[in-house]
Amino acid sequence: MEVSAIKAKNCSGSMEAGNASQFSEFFFVGLTNDPQLQPILFALFFLIYAVTVVGNLGLFAFIVVCSRFHTPMYFFLSNLSFLDFCYSSVTVPKMLMEFLSGCQTISFSGCVIQTACFVVFAVTEFFLLATMAYDRYVAICRPLLYHVIMSPRLCLQLVTASYAVGLTNTVLLTSSTFHLTFCKSHVITHYFCDIPPLLKLSCSDTQVPQLLLFACGGFNVSVSLTVVLMSYTCVFMAIIRIPSAQGKHKTFSTCASHLTAVSLYYGTTVFIYLRPTSDYLLGRGRLVSVFYTVVIPMLNPMIYSLRNKDVKETLENILKKTSQFFSHPIPRFP
């Protein structure tokens, strides 16, 4: 911590204790203090972020432009792609700037905004994944009524409700965290403004914010995961009743991508947030946080596109037409 404190002093000038209103900025410990590793990490995370932006915005545009994909399932997938782009953009660009400058600071107001945005996007993704599970249940278990049940109005309502829960969480958690008095230090043992490491900096009683964090996390996971488990229990029972092995495989393949995304996201976020702040393992927590804030948003478009037959076929057709267009000889005019 001494190395981090010295760097913080060099970046921000003062390390004096005080309450939140006296802190003009916070300092991040970051992923490493080794200056030789920072250029390597910058290149790595820049590449990951570039793939994330191209993959998610590309998949979003692809679904919007191609009328073939104007269905409830792809409507939810386009929202997930947009959400993953925003989710990753909350933390990664700031981290890249820190690698370049070597001064890992953020203003107090910037920390509030980063925390608020992070919470709303993270919580919204829980309920969007649950919505996608319910969509798969209706598609497989009630196929004849699929387009009646999953009407455009209901789809919009489900997405809006997901964002509403996210906004409610961010108001509760952000307000309870930043009303605390921060007097121990302004060095955040993380690479972005997250609530557990922020609570460790407070000299106020953090019992209420900790309970609120645990209660909100428990509610988000229990409600959304219940929807996921109930939906896929019905789906698996329906798949078992399919007589042919080929039919079982074809039906299950429509759910495999979503199950992979759910397992990755729920596993990492539950590890971080559904435990007391006193048990927050800083080194391990930062590594797991990298996985769900940086890696998963990059993997999701790959998971859904590479395992989706319709997407692959459409991409192949587009690439084939593009190659044919550029292979045509250029006409010559007299």
TrEMBL record:
Cellular component terms per the entry's GO annotation: plasma membrane
InterPro entries: GPCR_Rhodpsn, GPCR_Rhodpsn_7TM, Olfact_rcpt
Compartments where found: Cell membrane; Membrane
Domain named G-protein coupled receptors family 1 profile: residues: 55-304
Record-linked CDD domains: 7tmA_OR5-like
Keywords, in A-Z order: Cell membrane, G-protein coupled receptor, Membrane, Olfaction, Receptor, Sensory transduction, Transducer, Transmembrane, Transmembrane helix
Membrane-spanning residues: 40-66, 73-92, 112-132, 144-165, 211-240, 252-274, 286-306
Primary location: membrane
GO molecular function: G protein-coupled receptor activity; olfactory receptor activity
Superkingdom classification of source: Eukaryota
Membrane topology: Multi-pass membrane protein
Matches recorded under Gene3D superfamilies: Rhodopsin 7-helix transmembrane proteins
Pfam families with a match to the protein in the record: 7tm_4 (PF13853)
Biological function: Putative odorant or sperm cell receptor.
Family, per entry: Belongs to the G-protein coupled receptor 1 family.
Protein name: Olfactory receptor
Native source organism of the sequence: Odocoileus virginianus (White-tailed deer)
Gene: LOC110134973
